[in-house]
Every structure is written in C-alpha cells, then in structure tokens.
Amino acid sequence: MFQKVLIANRGEIAVRIIRALREMGIKSVAVYSEADRDALHTLLADEAICIGPAASSESYLDMERILSACEAMKADAVHPGFGFLSENARFAELCEKCSIAFIGPSSAVISRMGNKSEARRTMQEAGVPVVPGSREACRTAAEGLLTAKEIGFPVMIKASSGGGGKGMRISRSEEDFEANFQNAQLESVKGFSDDAMYIERYVERPRHVEFQILADRFGNVVHLGERDCSIQRRHQKVLEESPSPAISEELRERMGETAVRAARAAGYENAGTIEFLLDADKNFYFMEMNTRIQVEHPVTEAVADLDLIKEQIRIAAGMPLSVRQEDVRISGHAIECRINAENPDKNFMPCPGVITDLHLPGGRGVRVDTAVYTNYRIPSNYDSMILKLIVHDRDRESAIAKMRSALGELVIEGVTTNLDFQYDIVNDPDFQSGEFDTDFIPTHFPGACR
Q1: Per-residue pLDDT reduced to its tens digit, 258-273
Q2: Which domain holds residue 437?
C-alpha cells in the first residue's frame, strides 16, 4: 500500500480524497494555488505545498510543477480527482515514467477512450451498440457536412477530445451546420487544444444513463448499477440519481453486462463510467467512457454501500477488488444536487465572493460534500460548484422528500447560488413522477437555457 498520496486537485473532491486516505492510514499531500492558501483541502491534508499562481494553467494544470511537488514531498502516488489533469493521458504517462503511481487507468487507456472516435471503434469491435456516427475524426466543416448528410439530420457535433458538455452543438439542417461546427470546434480548441470533431446522429429527447464500473489488474470487472443524469443544462449535469426510474431490472442487467463488456474491451483498470443514451423505445447506445471518478459518485456509494475512492486506491496499489458482481446489492434510492455559486436569474453567471453564513443540513441519510466554510472566499478562478448535497432513503419517493427537506435546511449567505433552482426541480411534478429526459430543464425552465 502507498505511504503518501498527493492529490492533484482542489475543492470538495480533494477533501473527499484526503478523508479516505486518512481512514486508510495513508499520509496526504495537498497542492494549492496562491488563491487556495486558506482552502479546506490545504488545511486538512497532512502536508501541503504551493504550486503557483491562481490561474489553473500555472498551478493545477501545470504537470511539471505537480510532478516536482511529488518529488519534493516524496509522494509515491497521485490521485487526480476529476477535472484538471484527471483524464490527461500525457500526465498519466509522465507519472508512469517517474515511477509515481497514477490512481486511475493507464495512459494508453486514457488516450484511447478519451478520443471519442477511437472509443467508438473500440466499442463497435466489442459489439457494444453505438449511435451511428463518424468513422474518423473531421477537421473541416466540409468533411463534417458530408458525414452529416450520410447519417441524416439532426446530428450532434462533438469535440473528439471533449468532455463536460464542452465543444458540443446540435445541427438540424445543412443551413445551420457550418456555424455550429465552427463554434463547437473553436470551443474544442480553446478547451482541449484539439480541432478534431466527430459527428453522430442526434437522439431526440433521450435519457442519459451511466454505469459505474470497477476493474482490477487481475481481470475482475464489476458494475455497481446505474445513475440517471438526464437533468442537465447545456449538457452540464445538474442533478443525478440512482437507480434510474426509467430502468427495469431486465434492462439494468443487459446494460450492466454491456458496460462490463465495454470495460473489458478497453483493457480498463480502476474506477470508470460507461455513459449511455437511452431512447424512448428503451434502446441504449454507448456515448463515451469517463476514465476517472465522477462528480456524482456519492449516489452510487449510497446505494451500493461501497467507498469508491478507497477502491480506486486499492486497485492502483495492485490489490484485487473487494467485491464480486454477485455481492453487489443496490439498496434504496439516492439523489445528488449540485449547489453552485451562480445566479440563475442572470444566465447562471458565476458569483464568487465571501460566504458570510453557512448552515449544512444533517440527519440520517443526508451527506454533504463540500470544501467551503463560514467566511471562506470563493475564488473567481475555478468552477462554480461549491457543494454537493446527497440523500439516501428506502425508495425514490422518500428520497425526494428527504432532498426537499435538506434543501430547505441548507443556508448559504453572502453569495448567490442555484439552491432555489434545485428546490424547484425536485418539486416539479414531472420530476417527481420520473417522466423526464435530457430536455427537462429546457422545457420546464426555458429561462435557464438562454
């Protein structure tokens, strides 16, 4: 087992990892930018080291500085969390070359599955259903248009190296294709330094359903059920739940087996997520694979009663999975709301500032993952998510009631948040009935998608 792990991240996920390491008896090292000198992850870790200015490009995204910090602090492993360098194949490769364990899959797997075109080919060869789309990446609008005509409109234009909803546009006709392609490509170049795009058929009003998988180096692969991530705004997840109200036991078994087959085809090792689109006729299609821990992993932890961060660390240390597929039992229902420092009335504009008062809800089945505290100043340099509120209860109706109560108890003063917006979602009759898809927010809250 590792002696010391450096967390190449910040915020609530860094705090989450530090707590898991502490429980495992492993020393933790926090890296922090100058803006995060008083951040909770900096204060909680056994050791901490400054890696640069507030700008992510000069701190949390600077591979050389993070690797130098590993050497200086004598860390024998790195946990990348999510975002930043978590799916950067080059960073994973540098860790391998420096004999520092990367708590995640190999650089080769990250590279293969991070490229959407390559991931599609891998899945097709394994017999995993995929949405009809490009065989090769496109780099010009003219190339993309030829593929779009072959597939048939509407189509989704996606950054080949993208993620998190960036570099994506829907085109419904030849007339709007070029503008959408160029806008998506510009976003891809800015966000991922890659102009390669791919085109796939746009599935109208699907559910976004993803399966959590774990795989070790001994060939053991299990899935831990699904998460429904259909409540989205501009392809960004807002609320997640497990299990999905749209999935029957028979469909869950088929999709789970497919997710395991997909992980095996990728030669995967560690925690990962297979994301599917589920259409109105219950046909499902592989969308992409996330080669990291997900923001929404707590809902799976709640229903599967398993610590995914500890499993990641065990796997990276060469240990076998602690659970077999026949041992996995999904119990009850869990929901997660992402609380962001943003203003829903101003197109969800980020709202950094000082939290002047904070009260966190509690009670049986209520969990809060956060790195904020009273008098904490939220920096303007990073993502606006400041807190994840997770509830777990015996069934979906009870979980919704518990989430409604927890949201009502949560108090965050000093900055504007999307707390009331989340409250409106869980109180919506269509959400409560489970009758929704990825168009839920655009149709029920049209002002949220300006």
Answers
A1: 999 999 999 999 999 9
A2: 207-449
